[in-house]
Amino acid sequence: MARKGYKGGRSVQKIVPTAKIDKMKLHVWMVVAAVVAGGWARVVPLEQAPYVRSAVAPALDPRAGSYADAVESALHNRIARHVRPDYSPLAKRQAAADSGAITDFGSSPPQPVRGSKGASFLHGSNTDIDRQNVDYLSPPPTDAGTVPNLKWAFSLSKSKLLNGGWVREQVVTDLPASKEVAAAEQRLAPYAYRELHWHRVAEWGLVLNGTVRITANDEDDRNYVADANKGDLWSFPRGVPHTLQAGPEGAQYLLVFDDGDFDASGTTFAVDDWIAHTPRDVLAENFGWNSSAFNSVPAADPYIVPAAQGETWLTIEEARKQVEANPAGEVDSPYVYRLSQQNKTQAPGGGGWVKVTDYRTFAASPTLASAYVHVEKGGLRELHWHKNAEWGYILKGKARATAFAGGATARTFDLQQGDTWVFPTNYGHYIQNVGDEELEFVEIFRAPNFGDKVKFDDFSLSQWLALVPPSVAAKQLNVSQHLVEQLSTKKQIIVAQA
Ligand SMILES: *[C@@H]1O[C@H](CO)[C@@H](O)[C@H](O)[C@H]1NC(C)=O
Ligand SMILES: *[C@@H]1O[C@H](CO)[C@@H](O)[C@H](O)[C@H]1NC(C)=O
Ligand SMILES: *[C@@H]1O[C@H](CO)[C@@H](O)[C@H](O)[C@H]1NC(C)=O
Ligand SMILES: *[C@@H]1O[C@H](CO)[C@@H](O)[C@H](O)[C@H]1NC(C)=O
After folding, report:
1. Where is this region: Disordered (predicted)?
2. Which ligand is the nearest neighbour of the Cα of 210?
3. Which residue among 113, 176, 195, 359 is the one 20 to 30 A from 292 at the CA level?
């Protein structure tokens, strides 16, 4: 695969600057510092400290302002080392020898072991979960510090089983880092429909399989009916009342909402629920009906309404007659977007394609932007970041991603079909296809302020390095200028396997 100038760039990260060690001076200052800190009795040569596994003194931090600062920092590291990663030169050398690749435990249960570090379980573990999250047990040596959980599997959500389908949600109490976005997977049996309702928040949908007929109307008397097929999107701006009905084969879809606290009171408003909680004389007056008409209204919110016996499915032309008869006409921005028909944008890096949508292409979805990403086997969604938090969902395949949280902290996650993640605003990350097949996922973005318009954006690390003066990038990374000059000034988006 022709990807000139990129392969060279990939070797950049292997060259790690190592600090110089001055053991003699260190020992002198250790003694002085230890006396000040607590007397001779506490002086233990570094090599003998029980929690120091390497027999080598720690490197002094070359960024420390003075030599005394460097010693203090070394002492601090020594004390803290039993709870923090080992930064000793030996550990650094081991880390340099470790490519960082996912540990292969074969058919044996994964263990909390990497190279010479860790030790096997003496009491066992939840092996099924461990197998899916090998990078929690055996993280790459580049992971560091405390990064909170950024992953949620829909398989850990409780399913709400209903007549005619089911739903399972991911809300802010499941994944607290996802403040901007909540989501749900929903399934409807053939012809079943999600009852009439509206939300305080906007709803974005992606059809995973089957056909969904949507109906809605806006605040300006206009209405809308359309069918969304597999791979198509819909969006209901907040407040817009809507229904979803599955076609003859049933349907499954992903729902995304532009607020993480989706289960909060005052978020979803269902018609049956409202009717059941309004005095009947008021209803009778409101609709001009005899109040006995409300005797059979469901008392509890049914959520999904199963198909009736002999349910008929109107052709879309028949269904649209109601819209055509409306003197106010159809809504000005269609609520369905035919993503399945949008041309793929091939990634310049050669590793796959993307389909991006935001208000510029899908006007009915001003508050949620998306990218549908397809990564070929072995490909890599390049190192990048966004102005806004990224919420993601694996459609198929297996991925590995590291969230770089700044402040020398990073955490690697393993993801597979049905898993979701969130990378808070500006976190650096990549998403690598580590499975035996294509990887597909969606990235979703919301602006920091609820209700604001959002444009899809991303910053590419490789492009950035290609766009600064080569001498600057070369000096920063301590690599030859020749390597830096090979980087492409074009965003690679997805890089093909080398
Ligand atoms: C840069 O790399 C060289 C080895 O290629 C090494 O000797 C030198 O110490 C490094 N410089 C820094 C600042 O890490
Ligand atoms: C999609 O639904 C059809 C039935 O309509 C089923 O045969 C097919 O296996 C489903 N696809 C996936 C990926 O499950
Ligand atoms: C409402 O319906 C009931 C039962 O059908 C009937 O007895 C009653 O007269 C009706 N009331 C009015 C105001 O039409
Ligand atoms: C999609 O690509 C085809 C050619 O592959 C082109 O004819 C068509 O105009 C493109 N559509 C859009 C909307 O760009």
Report:
1. 102-124
2. 2
3. 195
| Domain hosting residue 116, numbered range | 103-137
- Tell me, what CATH number does 175's domain have? 2.60.120.10
Is residue 317 included in any domain, yes or no?
yes
Nearest CA to ligand 3 atom 8: 290
Identify the residue whose C-alpha is closest to ligand 2 atom 5.
Answer: 249
In this structure, are 360 and 447 located in the same domain? Answer: yes
Tokens 């296809």 identify what position?
Answer: 433
| Cα 209 to averaged position of ligand 2 atoms, centre (Å) | 6
In a domain, residue 2? The reply is: no
Closest alpha carbon to 9 in 492, 408, 409 = 492
The pLDDT of residue 74 is: 46
Same domain, 373 and 480: yes
Question: What's the whole-model pTM score?
Answer: 0.82
Tell me the C-alpha distance between 304 and 196, whole Å: 9
Grade residue 298 by pLDDT with cuts at 50, 70 and 90: confident
Same domain, 238 and 359: no
pLDDT in tens, 87-125: 566 666 666 789 999 999 999 999 999 999 999 999 999
Active site residues: 443
Please check whether residues 60 and 107 belong to one and the same domain: no
Each residue's pLDDT tens digit, 351-365: 999 999 999 999 999
Same domain, 332 and 348: no
Residues with CB under 6 A from ligand 2: 209-210, 249
Among protein residues, the one with the nearest Cα to ligand 3's atom 12 is 290
Quote the ligand 3 centre to 276 CA distance (angstroms): 20
Whether the per-residue pLDDT at 30 is higher than 90: the answer is no
Whether 152 is covered by a domain: the verdict is no
Q: State how far the Cα of 490 lies from the Cα of 472, in Å rounded to an integer.
A: 19
CA 493 to chain centre: 16
- Percent share of the chain, pLDDT over 90: 77
239 in the same domain as 120: no
Claim to verify: residue 438 and residue 295 sit in the same structural domain: no
400 and 462 belong to one structural domain: yes
* Higher local confidence (pLDDT), 78 or 176: 176
Count of structural domains, the chain:
4
In a mutational test of the pocket of ligand 3, which residue from 281, 289, 292 has the highest number of ligand atoms less than 8 Å from its CB?
292
Last residue of a domain, one of 337, 356, 385: 337
- Where are the alpha helices (H) located in 243-287, listed in sequence order? 271-276, 280-287
Q: Of 373, 381, 378, 371, which Cα lies nearest the Cα of 349?
A: 381
The span from the CA of 203 to the CA of 257, in Å, is: 5
- Name every residue whose Cβ is closer than 8 Å to that of residue 228 and which is 6 or more positions away in sequence: 205, 207, 211, 212, 213, 214, 234, 336
Q: Which ligand 3 atom lies nearest to the CA of residue 290?
A: 1
